[in-house]
Design goal:
By secondary structure, this protein is α/β, with parallel strands linked by helices. It has helices at 2-13, 17-21, 53-66, 72-79, 100-112, 132-144, 150-160, 168-177, 181-188, 194-202, 222-240, 258-264, 298-317; strands spanning 28-29, 31-33, 68-69, 89-90, 92-95, 116-120, 205-209, 246-248, 270-272, 285-286, 289-290. It has two domains: 21-129 and 191-317, Glycoside hydrolase/deacetylase (TIM Barrel); 131-189, no CATH class. Helices cover 47% and strands 10% of the residues. Strand 8, helix 12 and strand 9 form a beta-alpha-beta unit. The chain is globular and about 55 Å long. The chain starts with a helix and ends with a helix. Bound molecules: zinc ion (ZN). Zinc ion binds at residues 95-96, 210, 214, 250.
Length: 319
């Protein structure tokens, strides 16, 4: 697996984007981010490496050189109404409803005329609650301030692997480490407010749902998967009057059964996952490309996604 990854990386770095992206029929790609951060952000940086505004702008310029920007409603037309894709396009989205989308990403997107979709967790809007992974990152940040030792690293690894079902452990650890999550929410306001989300909407964002409080769906009962999905979608519809209902899976769509997709079908127009470029244009589940992979610029990431897509196409043509 590691070897495959290395080979793919090696090959991706040697592809001419222009040639590679035109070696397949026109497609819509779906790059996604969480935040764009100018400085170290304690609730994020232990989880993944967000881009700064310079790196993000370079990504956008790269995307604009090779793809036409489209919004979620156009994606719906391509995916569900089977409208043919005439030129390579990209649909940008952001997960988790973080404040930096408004403060850092929005001005750049407006300047370049790029629409985007924001997927929000309804429990976090207005800084009501902290995402359990953000809690883990804050605790890790506190441990990293201690002198490094094998015990410290062990504790960091443990905190980063606490699952959603055992998230109470994070509150217990916070009490021991004297980390005050409520105080952090109040002072740092990591998430967007309802008013900011409405302002984003007026400036060209489509608002979608990303579950209530970001569980890993593979670890939930189906009834809870459906509740998390439909309740958050209903909240978005009611609060932001979106004409269509868009949903992105928290963490990933892995191991979510087909019966789940059938169950949400009447209320959800289109769902977004994280598994790169999907073979076959049509369908109610769209694959997105993670743009926050450590040390990778847009060209590396998109090249890799296209290469995987081409390899899959070749393999499928033999079956
Ligand atoms: Zn998320």
């Amino acid at each position: 697996m590691v070897l495959h990854h290395k080979i793919l990386n090696y090959l991706a770095k040697r592809q001419q984007p222009e040639k590679l992206y035109h070696s397949v029929a026109p497609v819509v790609i779906h790059p996604f981010y969480h935040a764009v951060c100018e400085e170290y952000t304690p609730h994020i940086h232990s989880l993944y490496k967000p881009k700064n505004s310079r790196e993000f702008e370079a990504d956008l310029d790269f995307l604009l050189r090779h793809f036409q920007p489209v919004d979620a409603h156009q994606v719906f037309e391509y995916q569900v109404k089977c409208r043919p894709v005439e030129q390579n396009s990209f649909h940008l989205s952001f997960d988790d409803g973080l404040r930096e989308v408004y403060e850092v990403a929005l001005p750049l997107l407006q300047q370049k005329g790029i629409p985007a979709t924001l997927f929000i967790n309804t429990a976090f809007v207005d800084n009501k609650e902290l995402f359990f992974r953000h809690k883990a990152a804050l605790l890790v940040d506190r441990w990293r301030q201690k002198p490094p030792s094998p015990a410290t690293q062990k504790e960091i690894d443990r905190l980063l692997s606490v699952p959603y079902s055992e998230r109470d452990q994070l509150d217990e650890a916070a009490a021991l480490l004297e980390v005050d999550f409520q105080d952090y929410l109040k002072k740092n306001k990591p998430y967007l407010t309802t008013e900011e989300i409405k302002a984003l909407q007026q400036k060209g964002f489509t608002i979608g749902a990303h579950s209530i409080d970001h569980p890993r769906y593979a670890q939930l009962e189906k009834t809870e998967q459906i509740r998390q999905t439909l309740d958050s979608c209903a909240y978005v519809k009611k609060t932001f009057n979106e004409p269509k209902t868009f949903f992105s899976f928290p963490f990933s769509e892995d191991d979510v059964p087909d019966s789940f997709m059938k169950a949400i079908r009447p209320q959800v127009d289109l769902s977004f996952g994280i598994r790169g470029m999907k073979i076959g244009q049509e369908g109610r589940l769209v694959g997105r490309i993670d743009m926050e992979k450590k040390g990778k610029d847009a060209q590396d990431t998109i090249n890799q996604a296209f290469l995987k897509y081409k390899i899959l196409q070749i393999l499928l043509s033999y079956t």
